[in-house]
Write a structure and sequence with these properties.
This is FadR family transcriptional regulator. Keywords: DNA-binding, Transcription, Transcription regulation. GO terms for molecular function: DNA binding; DNA-binding transcription factor activity. By secondary structure, this protein is an all-alpha fold. About 70% of the residues lie in helices and about 0% in strands. The protein has 11 helices and 2 strands. It has helices at about 15-25, 40-45, 50-65, 80-95, 95-120, 125-140, 150-160, 165-180, 180-195, 195-210, 215-240; strands spanning about 65-70, 75. It has a two-stranded antiparallel ribbon with strand order 1-2. A hairpin with a 5-residue loop joins strand 1 (about 65-70) and strand 2. Helix 6 packs antiparallel against helix 7. It starts with 12 loop residues before the first helix and ends in a 5-residue tail after the last helix.
Length: about 240
């Protein structure tokens, strides 16, 4: 019987720091791309020495949870980065039609479910944030403009409102790809084609469904929006590279 027991080993301070930061990431309190406090700040917050903090950060970087960026700062790394970001990014940068279409399909599945969950789980501050972003969209639409970054923040807020950490991490990676390519391209396309008002209506419908706590309507309205994105993306790519569509 005694052989099933293992001696208890006291944890090093750095290991406790690692566990605490991993827990914050898993709960979504530290999100993908978010900068963590400096070594000095962390040491003060945690009441430990800077060498212990430094060792913990090195361990978390080796495990793939954190990354140091040129110019300073340590950031939370998306859980999907290692497996997805690099190969996808290179194909998206080349505007590979098959990859862009595939990403749109993935986005449809994930974001319609995000809208569904957000309608069930969103807390009032998240709904207030969506309303705030939508107000900015209204102001831009009045002048005929459409900012892909604001659009991105609207969808990202919906994803955060799911309170599903994996959903947030996965969609953050995919949304970043869309933000840098498809959203920019479609933003320009919609502006030229006079679709700004339609875009605004779509986002209003999604917001109102989430505010009404109507998951099915929220999912349906997100699907309507993303179907239009897919349609216009196909037209955009066909115009750019007619031999590949």
């Amino acid at each position: 019987m005694a052989t099933v027991f293992k001696p208890i080993r006291p944890k090093k301070l750095s290991e406790e720091i690692v566990d605490q930061i991993k827990e914050l990431i898993s709960r979504g309190d530290l999100g993908p791309g978010q900068r963590i406090p400096s070594e000095r700040e962390l040491a003060t917050f945690l009441g430990v020495s800077r060498p212990s903090v430094r060792e913990a950060i090195m361990v978390l970087e080796a495990m793939g949870f954190l990354e140091s960026r040129q110019g300073g700062g340590t950031y939370v790394r998306s859980l999907a980065d290692v497996a997805m970001a690099d190969p996808l990014a290179s194909m998206v940068e080349r505007r590979d039609p098959r990859m862009l279409h595939a990403l749109t399909e993935v986005r449809m599945g994930l974001e319609t479910w995000s809208a569904y969950l957000a309608a069930k789980r969103a807390e009032q501050p998240e709904i207030d944030r969506l309303r705030e972003i939508y107000t900015v969209m209204e102001e831009q639409a009045e002048s005929g403009g459409w900012d892909p970054e604001i659009d991105f923040q609207f969808h990202l807020t919906i994803t955060a409102a799911t309170h599903n950490t994996i959903q947030v991490h996965v969609l953050n990676t995919i949304q970043t790809l869309f933000q840098t390519t498809i959203m920019v391209a479609l933003g320009e396309f919609y502006s030229k084609e006079g679709y700004v008002e339609l875009l605004l209506n779509h986002h209003r419908d999604i917001l109102e469904a989430i505010e009404a706590r109507d998951p099915e309507r929220a999912r349906a309205k997100m699907l309507v929006h993303l179907n239009l994105v897919e349609e216009k993306l196909a037209m955009f790519l066909n115009k750019e590279r007619p031999d590949t569509i």
